[in-house]
Amino acid sequence: MSASPPQPHVASGSDEDPQQLMDQRRKRRMLSNRESARRSRMRKQQHLDDLINQVAKLKNENSEILNRVNVATQHFMKVDADNTVLRTQVMELTERLQSLNSVLRFMEDISGLAMDIPEIPDPLLKPWQLPCPSQPIMADMFHC
């Protein structure tokens, strides 16, 4: 007969059994805690990665919005400058027309001939009423 290696003797009910059971439970708990901590670290890392991606996306969106605001601001400044030029021209032309009308009234008084001299609307009091309504407004002026 062949000799088998000696088996450690585990006596049921001895003092070593509860100690071994506690050691095994402690080891299982340690392994379980390590695995739980590993999963928690992975979740935190995933959350951090998600937040970093979200920050990058929001920075990109902010940059795009800032570019659009800058383009709109430049467009507004150009339109505002054009408006200032046009208002100045309206005032100059209105003054010329008033001067010409006064000359016509003078000529009317001297010649005795009745002339049809229309009243000049004040463009500053009613800016929505254009003095020359037949002039078209360019629609593409409002597109970026």
UniProtKB/TrEMBL annotation:
What's one Pfam family the UniProt record gives for this protein? Answer: bZIP_1
Q: Which domain of life is it from?
A: Eukaryota
- Looking at the record, which segments are called Disordered? 1-46
Question: Which terms are listed as keywords in the entry?
Answer: DNA-binding, Nucleus, Transcription, Transcription regulation
Which biological processes are named by the entry's GO terms? positive regulation of DNA-templated transcription
- Give the main localization category: nucleus
Localization = Nucleus
Q: Domain named BZIP: which ranges?
A: 23-86
| TM helices/strands, residue ranges | none
Q: One GO molecular-function annotation for this sequence?
A: DNA-binding transcription factor activity
Which Gene Ontology CC terms are recorded? nucleus
InterPro entries the UniProt entry points to? bZIP (IPR004827), bZIP_plant_GBF1 (IPR045314), bZIP_sf (IPR046347)
Protein name (record): BZIP domain-containing protein
Q: What is the lineage of its organism?
A: Eukaryota, Viridiplantae, Streptophyta, Embryophyta, Tracheophyta
